[in-house]
Structure to design on (1155 residues):
């Protein structure tokens, strides 16, 4: 974190009398969020969009003009108009409303998968780095195996094996499938961060003083791992949204009639998109903008927290 | 709202007339026909094949004993048979075979080949597979008194036997090759058909070229044909639009047809016909509350089939409302008869009231269940979404579950579902085939409702042996009424076949089955 | 160095074995089997005897450990077995499609390299100016846009504006270069965009780092031409991580092709993979996964070697 420099008022004036005028620009102490917004305009823009997505997702019932599941055989494949801002799909469902509700699915899947994957990855990384030796070797070997699979291959395999497990409109197995490829990546990064700390003398001192493993992990190692963890967490939300889109496109993700952006790009859209391009333009745009925003925010977060981090 | 059935009949008639008009031109010889196929066959054995993906590229290499007259479905004509007679008791079928027929490798075709082929179908040996054994279980023996005569003796009468012999799946193989290796046809193509096998590039295309010694004079007209495998629907339609392929012989969705018509106008012709395919809802009778006929019937009554078929026909390849047999088939129920069956009435309000009453009677409140559908966009998804909407109207919540095909099949067969959307496609109109979905589960491997109904079995046997058409119709009506009142399996909508051909493609005839008329013998290119 | 190499080589073996076991088990945990699918998916009426016979023919009735041993022993002599769907040798099925995917991957890589290195360098040199911002936006957009959606848009555009579609069948580049390129340039672009985005970002950050190094300042202070400074010293050092990223992402490309090939209807490995997984064609999926995993692991190994050769500190970890 950048620390602000304080120079007390009186000392400043006293020195100014005798020495040549050296004016220090004293940065005002601003709220971190405001600080962030000013120094990282792109990231702030991303954050704004993310917040908008959240609002859309949480208050979907109030924001969306139509019920996303409501069929209207009278207005199938209608082009964008004042009635339907983004047109309708093959069943006459309003695309705009489905995009709004889709934000809910995207955010839920994105956050839950990333939280699960990054969380487990971070724990594994810390444990692996802290205990070292055989445990470390074994865990790293297993991570290597998982890393040898292309992401979509792994996710595809997990979905195919686990099938579907819908709870409250979300498919838990999909979330697991998306989380799994993240685990080895996060564990690797967290592990190197934790390793760096483990070498520090104060950890040795703590051990010598007789502190237990858990205390050392939580007190010393964990705080230094938070920064890379947060960065990966935001980056992986973006990747989770993309992966969900790809899996739904292949027919292995969310199913009809749930409103989800990736799903809106497959199925009947594949049949009709050349007559009704709005069926794919808006969902694709939604995915791109959401991932874009999360990436911008994630990048800026990294620049702000610690530009030297190698991820 | 004019009579839907009348339109279907008129359509079929109009389509049948087309070739009469088209036939006025003299066919030109030459050219390569390129057409698209949306899937690829796993291997080359007709007797083990199930899919149109097999028929379209492979059928032109073979002949069958009989076939359906391309221009006059459902009339049966000889393919390798010159003539045939059926004994008056219906137990003996004698075929006189054509002479001067050769296999692609030059060896002559005799009655031995027919016997070897049908023996293989009835009773596969040596690792060979045959999946249509049941169709021929009534055959007692096959004799070959001379090189050009085959005699089939049956154990009992079968009203559909001639239709069986016209099945597109019964490719005639060489007896000599089968003797050497019963598995020969799986990876080798050797037939008597109009086209010789040239090459199959896996995932890409299949090529056949004219067999110069083909037994029908002046046929085939085409020099060669090339089947291009394009799995992606949009890519397929694009290819057709760009003229890269001249046709796709399974069927297009209404939206694709409209798109092609808009883009190509009078460069193409559109052929339409009712299709021998239907979507049926199957209830798992082993799971409560679907063991109660009232619940099943209520769910059938909730569906507004007439309005729904009309609406769905705009976005999906379904259109017709029918019972257990294809609407338009001579043995099927006409509209008046259909309307009497529960679920097929015109007054949907009354039907839904009754449905709610039945549910209340059965003591079922706020029914919620998982509706298992195939994970295929056309036409399963739209019909699934429609049905869920219809059930919502009587306060029933169905959750759409679309596992991928493997899991779907496993669930159906294992009884691991509550309510499912299944489909039923056949190569020909034949009550023996279509009714198999409704007879007892312990008799029929494709009845997934796990229910037995002896009355239906009885009626099935009765109609099978009834050679008189009118009497057979009566039995079928009784069957239909009973089956749809018990409602273990209920038909929802029947499919609608739409074919779009470039005008140069001539000599191809439309039929209600995408498994028929694919030997390409009479097809020619006007260019 | 030699010891390090041998060490890493030996480590590859348990990893590969782990992949084999994992893929073997995962496949057999999937519900449904290929025999049922093949005979029943078109609504056929097949007796249980036929299904059992077919399973025996494919070796699916043997105990699991037996199937695994059979497969492994075949692998060790280079026999990948026979596809459970078509009966053709697995190797034939894969090799006929490999050329196409490989070519798209190479084209995407070339594209990415030629875009990423100049753009990334420019962005670093003109850091925080509008050039930098534009290039950054371009790069992040590349990460955000799903490549299959981009593919769909391309097809839409080509059809709407030019009424033209790319060729449907594959011809090798040495047979008919125009036909070949006009089919494959589009998927290469769709996939290559994302690829170049990642590489651009990497180039930018490593060039930035190098530019801040002391020896660069020294070179500048000595009065060497700006240009020479950049090209000689900075580039060479910045290139190493970039080359690494390009190499590793290339391996990920193969996975990315999975979705893109569907959109463009390309007869490649990606499409083959999706088809064989949906069909539960165990032998094919196992072979494909082993191939891709081996590729990854080998690339990882080579990259590690390269790093170790250049940075001796790593060898002694």
């Amino acid at each position: 974190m950048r620390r602000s420099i304080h120079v007390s008022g009186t000392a400043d004036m006293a020195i100014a009398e005798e020495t040549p005028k050296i004016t220090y620009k004293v940065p005002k102490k601003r709220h971190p969020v405001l600080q962030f917004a000013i120094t990282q305009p792109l990231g702030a823009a991303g954050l704004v969009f993310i917040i908008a997505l959240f609002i859309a997702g949480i208050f979907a019932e109030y924001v969306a003009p139509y019920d996303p599941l409501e069929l209207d055989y009278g207005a199938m494949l209608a082009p964008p108009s004042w009635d339907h801002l983004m047109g309708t799909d093959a069943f006459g469902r309003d695309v705009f409303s489905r995009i709004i509700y889709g934000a809910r699915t995207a955010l839920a899947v994105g956050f839950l998968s990333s939280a699960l994957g990054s969380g487990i990855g971070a724990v594994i990384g810390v444990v692996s780095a802290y205990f070292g030796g055989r445990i470390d070797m074994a865990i790293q070997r297993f991570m290597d195996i998982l890393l040898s699979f292309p992401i979509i291959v792994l996710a595809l395999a997990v979905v195919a094996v686990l099938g579907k497990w819908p709870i409250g409109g979300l498919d838990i197995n999909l979330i697991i499938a998306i989380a799994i490829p993240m685990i080895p990546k996060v564990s690797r990064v967290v592990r190197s961060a934790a390793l760096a700390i483990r070498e520090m003398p104060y950890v040795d001192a703590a051990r010598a003083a007789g502190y237990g493993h858990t205390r050392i992990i939580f007190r010393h190692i964990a705080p230094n791992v938070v920064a890379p963890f947060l960065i990966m967490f935001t980056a992986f939300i973006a990747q989770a949204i993309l992966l969900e889109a790809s899996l739904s496109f292949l027919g292995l993700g969310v199913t009809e009639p749930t409103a989800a952006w990736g799903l809106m790009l497959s199925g009947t859209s594949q049949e009709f998109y050349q007559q009704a391009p709005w069926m794919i333009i808006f969902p694709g745009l939604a995915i791109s903008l959401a991932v874009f925003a999360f990436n911008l925010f994630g990048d800026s977060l990294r620049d702000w927290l610690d530009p030297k981090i190698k991820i | 709202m004019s009579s839907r059935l009348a339109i279907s009949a008129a359509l079929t008639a109009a389509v049948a007339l087309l070739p009469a008009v088209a036939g006025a031109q003299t066919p030109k010889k030459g050219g390569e026909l390129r057409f698209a196929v949306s899937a690829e066959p796993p291997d080359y054995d007709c007797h083990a094949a199930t899919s149109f993906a097999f028929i379209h590229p492979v059928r032109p290499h073979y002949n069958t004993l009989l076939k359906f007259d391309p221009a006059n479905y459902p009339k049966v004509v000889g393919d390798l048979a010159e003539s045939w007679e059926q004994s008056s008791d219906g137990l003996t079928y004698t075929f006189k075979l054509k002479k001067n027929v050769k296999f692609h490798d030059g060896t002559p075709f005799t009655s031995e080949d027919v016997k070897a082929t049908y023996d293989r179908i009835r009773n596969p040996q040596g690792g060979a597979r045959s999946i249509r054994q049941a169709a021929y279980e009534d055959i007692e023996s096959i004799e070959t008194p001379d090189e050009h005569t085959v005699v089939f003796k049956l154990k009992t009468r079968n009203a559909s036997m001639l239709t069986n012999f016209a099945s597109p799946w019964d490719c005639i193989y060489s007896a000599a090759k089968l003797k050497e290796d019963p598995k020969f046809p799986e990876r080798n193509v050797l037939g008597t058909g109009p086209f010789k096998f040239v090459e199959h590039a896996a995932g890409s295309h299949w090529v056949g070229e004219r067999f110069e010694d083909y037994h029908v004079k002046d046929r085939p007209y085409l020099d060669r044909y090339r089947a291009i495998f394009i799995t992606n629907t949009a890519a397929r339609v694009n290819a057709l639009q760009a003229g890269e392929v001249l046709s796709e012989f399974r069927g297009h969705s209404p939206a694709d047809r409209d798109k092609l018509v808009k883009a190509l106008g009078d460069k193409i012709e559109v052929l339409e016909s009712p299709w021998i395919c239907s979507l049926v809802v199957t209830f798992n009778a082993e799971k409560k509350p679907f063991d109660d006929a009232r619940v099943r019937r209520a769910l059938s009554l909730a569906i507004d089939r007439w309005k729904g078929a009309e609406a769905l026909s705009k976005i999906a390849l379904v259109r017709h409302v029918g019972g257990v047999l294809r609407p338009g088939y001579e043995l099927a129920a006409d509209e008046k008869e259909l309307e009497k069956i529960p679920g097929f009435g015109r007054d949907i309000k009354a039907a839904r009231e009754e449905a709610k009453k039945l549910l209340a009677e059965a003591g079922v409140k706020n029914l919620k269940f998982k509706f298992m559908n195939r994970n295929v966009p056309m036409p399963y998804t739209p019909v699934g979404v429609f049905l869920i909407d219809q059930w919502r109207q009587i306060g029933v919540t169905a959750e759409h579950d679309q596992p991928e095909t493997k899991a779907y099949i496993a669930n159906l067969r294992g009884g691991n579902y509550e309510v499912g959307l299944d489909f039923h496609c056949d190569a020909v109109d034949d009550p023996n085939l279509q009714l198999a979905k409704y007879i007892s589960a312990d008799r029929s491997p494709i009845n997934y409702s796990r229910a037995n109904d002896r009355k239906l079995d009885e009626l099935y046997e009765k109609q099978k042996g009834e050679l008189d058409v009118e009497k057979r119709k009566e039995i079928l009506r009784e069957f239909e009424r009973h089956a749809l009142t018990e409602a273990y399996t209920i038909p929802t909508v029947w499919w609608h076949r739409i074919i779009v051909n470039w005008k140069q493609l001539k000599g191809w005839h439309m039929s209600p089955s995408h498994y028929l008329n694919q030997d390409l013998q009479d097809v020619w290119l006007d260019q | 160095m030699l010891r390090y190499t041998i060490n890493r080589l030996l480590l590859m073996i348990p990893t590969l074995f782990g992949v084999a076991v994992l893929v073997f088990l995962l496949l057999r945990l999937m519900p449904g089997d290929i025999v049922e699918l093949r005979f029943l998916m078109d609504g056929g009426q097949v007796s249980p005897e036929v299904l059992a016979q077919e399973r025996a023919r494919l070796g699916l009735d043997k105990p699991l450990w037996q199937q695994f041993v059979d497969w492994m022993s075949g692998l060790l002599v280079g026999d990948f077995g026979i596809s459970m769907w078509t009966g053709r040798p697995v190797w034939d099925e894969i090799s006929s499609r490999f050329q196409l995917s490989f070519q798209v991957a190479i084209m995407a890589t070339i594209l990415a390299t030629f875009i990423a290195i100049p753009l990334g360098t420019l962005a670093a040199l003109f850091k925080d100016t509008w050039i930098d911002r534009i290039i950054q936006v371009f790069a992040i957009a590349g990460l955000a846009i799903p490549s299959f959606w981009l593919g769909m848009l391309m097809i839409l555009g080509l059809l709407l504006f030019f009424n033209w579609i790319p060729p449907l069948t594959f011809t090798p580049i040495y047979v008919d270069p125009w036909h070949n390129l006009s089919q494959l340039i589009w998927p290469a672009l769709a996939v290559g965009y994302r690829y170049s985005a990642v590489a651009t970002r990497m180039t930018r950050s490593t060039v930035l780092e190098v530019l801040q190094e002391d020896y660069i300042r020294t070179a500048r202070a000595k009065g060497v031409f700006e240009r020479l400074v950049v090209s000689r010293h900075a580039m060479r050092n910045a290139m190493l991580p970039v080359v690494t990223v390009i190499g590793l992402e290339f391996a990920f490309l193969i996975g990315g092709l999975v979705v893109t090939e569907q959109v463009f209807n390309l007869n490649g490995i990606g499409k083959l993979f999706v088809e064989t997984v949906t069909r539960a064609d165990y032998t094919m999926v196992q072979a494909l996964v082993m191939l891709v995993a081996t590729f990854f692991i080998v690339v990882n190994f080579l990259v590690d070697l390269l790093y170790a050769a250049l940075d001796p500190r790593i060898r002694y970890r």
Remarks:
- Chain C touches chain A through 43 residues (CB under 8 Å).
- Chain C has twelve helices and no strands.
